[in-house]
Amino acid sequence: MSHSAASFGRPRVRVMDRVGSGLLQVVLVLVALFWLIPTLGLLVVSLRAEQDNNSSGWWTFFSKPAQITFDNYSNLLASGFSSSFWNTILITVPATLLVIGIGAMAAYAFAWIDFPGRDALFLVVVALLVVPVQIALIPIAKLYGALGIFGSVAGVVLFHVAFGLPFAIFLLRNFFTGIPRELMEAARMDGSPEWKIFATIVFPLAKPAIASLGIFQFLWVWNDLLVALVFADTGSQPMTKALQSQMRQFGTNVDILAPGAFLSLIIPLILFFAFQRYFVQGLLAGSVK
Amino acid sequence: MAALPKRQRLGPSPSLAWLFLAPALVLLAAWMIYPVVYSLFRSLHDATGNTFVGLANYGAIFSDSATLITIRNNVIWVVVAPLLVTVLGLIFAVLTERIRWATAFKLVLFMPMAVSLLAAGVIFRLVYEQAPDRGVANAIITTVHDAFAGSQGYPGARPRENDAAPASVENGAVVTKQVVRTGQPALIPLVGLSPDAVAGFAPARPASGDGLTGTVWIDTVRGGGGTVNQIDPEEKGLAGMTVEALQGGAVKATTETAADGTFAFTGLPPGDYQVRLPQSNFTAAFNGLTWLGPTLITPAIIGAYIWVWAGFAMVLIAAGLSAIPREALEAARIDGCTEWQVFRKITVPLLAPVLLVVFVTMIINVLKVFDLVFIIAPGSVQPDANVVALEMWRVSFGGGGDQGLGSALSIFLLVLVLPFMAFNIRRFRRDER
Fold first, then answer.
1. Considering only CA atoms, which of B180, B182, B178 is closest in space to residue B164?
2. A60 and A197 fall within a common domain
3. Side-chain half-sphere of B37: how many Cα atoms within 13 Å?
4. What CATH number does residue A170 fall under?
5. Distance from the A109 Cα atom to the nearest Cα atom in chain B, whole angstroms
6. What is the CATH number of domain B39-131+292-432?
7. Do A154 and A192 lie in a common domain?
8. pLDDT tens profile B20-74
């Protein structure tokens, strides 16, 4: 971003600006390092043998780069961690798609169909945005017990869909109301059925908003620990829960935790860098949750 | 946001709306509304769920010492974390406007938001490792500490234990036996450090001068030899020792030894003194902070929280900043306002609505903080770091076995969030108008 203040300054001021700007660069580089180093540390620890991690700090890696090894990763995958990786995908993908589908339908009704009580009902949705997950843990555990889906992937998915819906409806409804009215009315004049307008006009137009919602919901579900902790069992547990169960002996099994944590964050990071534009848009559109 | 257009009856019938809404409404009703009602009901019953206990569970929240600690911690969190996140976000947003690599900077700071809090917790467990040769936080702190304080300890150094030794140990400190007079340099010979440990030190030298002076040195020579209680040329001085001059038991002055082990008090009136090397000289070297101990655990976790959320605040505030009319800022600058004045009088007031949204979002988020505390605090320290959201899980699922109390805690959490729910609704209605 260009800053034109310097061009107004007299030469002396410009020199001061130069010095100040140099200092600023240094400070911001330090801040950026501060933010990078912890994750870098995790990566390096995950690539070092257990005895190396026990005897010296990960930063010594840069003076002795020979110690790199993938043993921690192969040991982790051999220990059955890969099944929790699949569970994470089995939970995250349907939970994301369902939230988009169900949320878009509801948002369409809120944005483009007149019905009595619409505004009041939408306020309920806005209110539900901030309801803590904790409120539902005990009641839903009881409900799942009665339905026989406690511990199943389906139970975890449904929970995530329900708690993702207020944000989904809020975000998409706000986007849908911005679609030109003429477009909608022309389609209705033509006698298109409502589901067709939804599928052929609104849904394609809303792609950016849906991408934002998708990446948010994906990250929330992928990164969730609490819901999995309560509702998943050892057969359906995602990576976060599998890793959490290793936390108790932190000192002794860094060689499991570090590669596990890194594997769990690599896909979100790739998605984040690929779709960061949508991520920021979604953030700006609905910074409430 | 523009007001909703008033629609004439061209659209579909309301019944179609309910069809579109049905799946969402069923899920919201069953997974969010019903649980609130059930939790209210359940919170009025005991652990078994069969006995009605009225408000006893709520009473327990505010009387049990363990839950009171969780509430205290939540208060600390709410007071400290949202403010720090918002202020840091504001600072970063303003500063990045002036650099070319702002996008890269924002990406780096924003990145933790994509990472699970579990992974962030593991990351910070590594950062906060106690041993300075394993945990990067203590590695940095001890390096900085040693660079500035300089006085690394000399654990193991001690005077000889015989009558001829000029100094002896008193309560962990080394004290001269004889009175030391100004103008007569004191000799404080120590042993107990191997010749290898002191090999790199400067040779000891006798002190000189009119004031109260002396030398602290290791009175041994590799392979033996040298005169006991005398400074021999091969013997090494102890640098950075804290030295105190005592008179009548009171400390009159403090100084430090130079590289050759000599010390000199300046400005002390002539007279008789006792010279003491306080215990701090002989304790082990500074080993960093106990981040994961009971005292520092909450600040340490808040540090990790800021690492996760500062980027969020920065991006939101930067978006608000880019919407501020540039002309207003330029006009103020041309009028001779300093950057600080522009920032305080124009930027911050114009940003106030965004700052408020970030702040409130952070409060809501902080009230529900769970994962970071759960992961970073070691099991034995968890009671000291506990927060309401974690306690709710602990009593209901994590071995507590009391879902009555758990329900009461979840309702308590919901009540804490209510004001911010109202804030959101009001903001939404204003935006709609």
1. B178
2. no
3. 7
4. 1.10.3720.10
5. 5
6. 1.10.3720.10
7. yes
8. 999 999 999 999 999 999 999 999 999 988 899 999 999 999 999 989 999 999 9
